[in-house]
Amino acid sequence: MFPDLGLVTTAAILLGLLIGLLALGVWIGISLLIVGFAAILMVTSVPIGPVLATTVWSSSASWSLAALPLFIWMGEILFRTRLSEQMFLGLAPWLNWLPGRLLHVNVVGCGVFAAVSGSSAATCATIGKIALPELKKRGYDDMMSLGSLAGSGTLGLLIPPSIPMVVYAIAANVSVIQVFLAGFLPGLLVMALYSGYIAVWSLANPKKSPPPEPRTSLGYKLRRSAKLLPVLLLIAFIFSALIFGLATATECAAWGVTGALILAWWSGTLNWTTFRDSLLSATRLTVTIMLILAGAAFTTAAMAYTGIPAALAAWVESMQLSPYVLIAALTVMYILLGCLIDGISMIVLTTVVVLPMIKQAGFDLIWFGVFLIILVEMAQITPPVGFNLFVLQNMSGRDSFTIARAALPFFFLLVAAVAIITAFPDIALWLPRLAFPE
């Protein structure tokens, strides 16, 4: 235990240590563990071993957390199917009448895939693999094709099942199902904003859109979309089970994996190689996230000994900030963080400090989860480390600046979505309250 350094000095040392470790490329989970060790050594003589063992075990021995690897595995299985090709062929005839026509396939296709994936990168890569070549071949504007795909790919975080939503629910100690339900209507809101922008842009730039394709019959549309029916049924089953309380999030995840395996078998892509690759990829991602969660849990316990979170919450309360000024400040903070670290790391690094302030301001933690996830969506398309930008850069061969410029309008649409759900919180809270009346 060091001599009393004061809260400000202690906080500055720990923050500097964390930034230094991340700058050196140390894994985030390991960095958090080191910062937790340093915090306890600096302020208390409590034995570190029991604290570490207790917090790591309590953060990982959660039945709700079992949904995490299952939803990840479900997305990895479907990522290896021909779902993206079937989705483009099935959705295109239905969306041809809208201004912007097939550009809306990016939005709707990502929304549908997000509902069975839970991963932003998988959503962006899977839909982009077939959509980008098709849109280019038919003469659609490259910048709008890339931008709409970059923005729509983030729907994998907001539309349940979502991996960051599970992480937030565990970190905030709230119901996974309620956070899932809260993300559904905001997800539709973001899709509507994206499609609305594409339609307005298309009407304002008619020369950048190809001529309309020939009208098709209802029978033709139904035949082209027939292969999407099993996926839509899987989505409907998962949502219905969540909304009506027929199954827990973990049970829904197990059924989702079963459905994904059946769909992969039905599409002819399920073999030993794809099964093994999907399982290994899901295991790697799950272990990485679990290490981050364990490090965050230990750091949270260590921070409690320092008194920094409580002092920060008291300081914010003493400033008499209005709730909306606090939300505006947090929005700016998360946008800046999104330029530096990935979304899941943003959640686990900040919840220990931010949640006491949110509670003090009187915000609902379920609503704040949706708010936070939309900000994490922004991080996916914020240079220089926006992951969706990297995915599209590799797929399209365009430079990162071009991809970021194409995604910029959709970044501002997410800002608009944050403003809307802040002004009208019932958009996020209506479904959780309907399913779980107090």
The value of Rg in angstroms is 22 Å
Helix-strand category: mainly alpha
Number of distinct beta strands: 0
Our estimate of the beta-strand percent is: under 5%
Give keywords.
mainly alpha; 22 helices
Task: Report on this structure.
The chain is mainly alpha-helical and 438 residues long. Helix content is 78%, strand content 0%. It is globular and about 75 Å long. 47% of the residues are buried.
Q: Can I get a quick summary?
A:
This protein is an all-alpha fold.
Write the layout of secondary structure elements.
Blueprint: H1 7-23, H2 28-43, H3 48-60, H4 67-79, H5 83-95, H6 103-117, H7 120-137, H8 142-153, H9 155-158, H10 163-172, H11 176-204, H12 218-224, H13 229-243, H14 249-267, H15 272-306, H16 308-318, H17 323-338, H18 343-361, H19 365-380, H20 387-396, H21 400-423, H22 426-435
Helix pairs in contact: 1-2, 2-15, 3-15, 4-14, 4-15, 5-6, 5-7, 5-12, 6-7, 6-8, 6-11, 7-8, 7-20, 8-20, 8-21, 10-18, 10-19, 11-19, 11-21, 11-22, 13-14, 15-18, 16-18, 17-19, 18-19, 19-21, 20-21
